[in-house]
Amino acid sequence: MSPLVNVYRGDYLESLHHIDFVLLGTKGVLASSGNLDERLFPRSTLKLHQAYDFVASGAYHNSQSQPQHLSLACASHNASLEQIQSLEKWLADNSLTEEDLVCGPNLPLLEPDVMAWAKTGHPLRRLHNNCSGKHTAMLLNARHLGFPLTDYHLPEHPIQKRFLDIMQKIFRIDLSNNGHALDGCGLVNYRMSLQELANAFLQLACRQDATVDVLLKAICDNPRYFAGEGRLVSDLLLATGGRILAKDGAEGMMAAVVRDRQIALAIKVKDGAFRASQTALMGLFMEFELLKQEELLLLKKWQQPTIQNSLKQTAGHLNYSK
Fold first, then answer.
1. What is the CATH number of the domain that holds 207?
2. What is residue 113's predicted lDDT score, i.e. its pLDDT?
3. What is the pLDDT, as a whole number, of residue 205?
4. What is the pTM of this model?
5. Domain count of the chain?
6. CA torsion, points 229, 70, 89, 240, in degrees to nearest 10?
7. I need a labelling partner for 9 at 20 to 30 A (CA). Which of 132, 185, 188, 239 fits?
8. Contact between 133 and 75 (Cβ < 8 Å)
9. In terms of DSSP bridges, do strands 4-9 and 39-40 run parallel, antiparallel, or are they unpaired?
10. How far apart are CA 166 and CA 237, in angstroms?
């Protein structure tokens, strides 16, 4: 039976989320549940890998880009005011405009940021799209390499072809024949198995690679730009000092790497629920004893997150069970 994330209202079980996962080490699969060969859409979990070429090509160092911008390039950001202001400056400093981005306007991911936006009375912007940092990096990379800025999101554009080459040559995964479809931000998303996704993250820990070092340092030094307040992936960076890196994606996707132990984890919540992916990640970390005691204390709220109603009263909670 697959692991579960249980949803309680009061003391009563209300809902269940079934979890598929794979735990991967340098010598192979350490534990798993579900079909490891089933091809899934990784969604935003591969943003670090998509940003690899932005650094490797020289575009990052040869543009007006700072470490917080590189963290945003790898992020599914909250669209907080601080993040939006940083994105505005990044575009302006590089003589780009918001209209150059393909991604469409999106509501911020979390309620506090939606409320903050609503109070401004301004229309939603492309910068509110949680993928706007990734799109900005792709534009700067295309310009640096002498490629057209138009249609950078299409699979036949040289920037997207270079991504496939990097996934094969650097991260040892051939996505070219896996099938693809449009992601929420307008880019192509290539299907892959959970084991392939875990391996892609394992390479972040195993490779002696200056480009990976630059990416990871930018994220670890700027965790609030990598996601934001109220997000487990940012809190993990803060609690572990970057020892553990995780990236969330839509439809219940999650991937992580424990860098010092060279262990990677990939998760799919079968019904696509985002709330369950964070609880599942914490539950699996605890089941396989991947967090240190002091880290567990710092991440206590994520072990059994509460559910609040419209009056900010605790109405229930989530927990993980195997």
1. 3.40.710
2. 87
3. 87
4. 0.95
5. 1
6. 30
7. 239
8. yes
9. unpaired
10. 25
What integer pLDDT is reported at residue 109 of this predicted model? Answer: 81
Residue 249 bridge partners (DSSP): 253
For 103, the token pair is 């991604």
3-state secondary structure of 82: helix
| Distance in Å from the first CA to the final CA of the chain | 8
Largest CA distance in the chain: 60
The residue type found at 236 is: L
For 299, the token pair is 């991440």
Of residues 108, 94, 121, 143, the one with CA closest to residue 229:
108
Q: Compute the distance between CA of residue 80 and CA of residue 112 in angstroms, rounded to an integer.
A: 9
Nearest CA to 90 out of 147, 47, 138 is that of 138
Supply the pLDDT for residue 116. 87
Looking at residue 263, its pLDDT comes to: 98
Averaged pLDDT, groups of 10, the chain, 322 residues long: 94 97 97 94 98 98 98 97 96 98 91 88 94 98 98 97 96 93 96 97 92 97 96 97 97 98 98 96 98 98 95 97 94
> What's the angle, vertex CA 196, arms to CA 195 and CA 200, rounded to 5?
115
Containing structural domain, residue 210: 4-321
314 with 288: CB under 8 angstroms? no
Tokens 């820990």, located at residue: 205
State residue 1's pLDDT score: 73
Q: Which helix (H) or strand (E) holds 32?
A: strand 28-33
